[in-house]
Fold these 2 entries.
Entry 1:
Amino acid sequence: MIGLDIGTYSIKAVSITLADGKAVLRGCNRVNRIPEEALHESVKKVISGDLFAVEPLAIAVSGPRVIVRFVEWPVMTEAELVSAARFEVENEASFDMQDAIIDCRIVSREAATNKIGVLIIAAAAAAVKTMVDEVTAAGRAVASIDVDSLALCNAFLRTSAGQKVTDKDTATALVNIGDTFVNMSIISRGIPFLARDTAGIGAELSGEIARRLGVAGSEAYKLKHSLPASPERVSELAGAMINKLAKEMKLSMGYFESQYSLPVEAIYVSGGSARLAGLTGSLAAALDVPVSVWDPFGALAVGDAGPFADAPGEFAVAVGLALGSANNA
């Protein structure tokens, strides 16, 4: 199974095989996107080689043209469920619901109250088609499509940290901090009760560093990941971005806690911008919740991340996509 995470700064691929019911990492790869290069050419590069020569291939979409909702409804028929799901999200969509892809799944049942917990996903068909077309242009076929925030859940719940909280009435936040988007999920008892995407801090921080210091984008990227050895001005800019992220997270956590009366007791961060020095400490202080960087390769029985062992968090979405594809195979 291959999970392909197509980000705006880089593209990550993870190849996983199943052996005796266990997921085993065969290999992973990352390619930074070149602005002048067509996206499908970058995709072709990241999945070149024997490790990525097999099907199926799973991708994901994220951002403002995707909606994820968890709702609790009375038990209903499948036809009623599909109709209710469309009605639930059509007033919130920033895209034309006449041209949307909607899916839903029952994820919990409460016999005492005769209610079901339903996970609803809606995505703009154009956004999905764009991603599929790029993969097709790279000479490959797409077997499944997910969303980034739920792929995070797939990966995390297979790790030892995730398994410890699956059966407990506690809430855990998963935050993937990318270049353009931040994917946030809050899970309890293995169910994603909240999943939303907000603006990322990676690209904005790189842009500010490049502008303030008069350096190239590639140099700005290096500077933000070399804190605190970077110039003091860079540290100040990073601190401002982290505070901005903390405010967004606090809003999401506050909404969740008011809806479900469950406090978020731990936060796990991943993604390229999770490597910012001081990020976990700053977020923990601002939110008064323990924050850790987690290793999605811990979800796999055996494997070697090779040259990417120093940045496993960047592959969280790709790992979740491959595991989700394996579960559906």
Entry 2:
Amino acid sequence: MPRLSTTKLSLASLALGLGLGVALAPASAEDLDGAAIMDRADKQNRPKDERCDVTMTILSPRGEKRRRELVTYFRAGAKDDDKLLVRFEAPADVKGTGLLTIEEGDDDEQWLYLPDLRKSKRIAGATKSQSFMGTDFSNYDMRTEDLAGHVYTKTGEETVDGRACYVLEAKPKDDDVLEETGYSKRILYVDKERFVCPKVVYFDRHGKLLKEAVTSGFTQIEGLWRGREIAMENRQEGSKTLVVYEKREVNKGLDEDLFTRRKLERP
């Protein structure tokens, strides 16, 4: 998962569960500024491709539970241009629903396919900040980290779950990015050794605390660190979405044709 998900550091959030890759020399890591930390995390945490079986449990403020099963696909592209596909497998009322994200420079595209309509529709502008399929993740969260669209400032260091982390403040570089994300800023906690992101705190357009994502259960798969679970909690609404990665396949070779509108609409 859960630009699920998939991450680059995150699928921005669901791809928080995507963790690692190429081992880089730790020399002078303490001297890295915010942008350099994010660049290193991006390179260390980037597979060629990845497929994940995911379960999501959505908890309402009243304690009601909804369970969903989905599959996420990721394929790295040139520079920061990646492709992601999320497809729901169960329950029956969402089966076949899919979200395709194609990152192309400053002109990223997202397409949502709804089986009842038998066609996909483009998600644009502020619509990206809306809830993804009733979860506590937004449509925008279902993509990898947009490094070019944010300014990263290192503000200190803290310990998260016993691990030393850099603390970074990420702010949109302009009003267009703010409109798409819906976040005035995020606080990212980046593991100083593994360069994964175990925690992210989100603030809404008005600077108020909105939600928090915590990734846990990190293990190595094919030499890459991956989180087992993500808990995204909406502090304003009192809801929570729990994501569990049941199975991962890393660098097995996903066909580029999988990441097309034609495949999105014909699963």
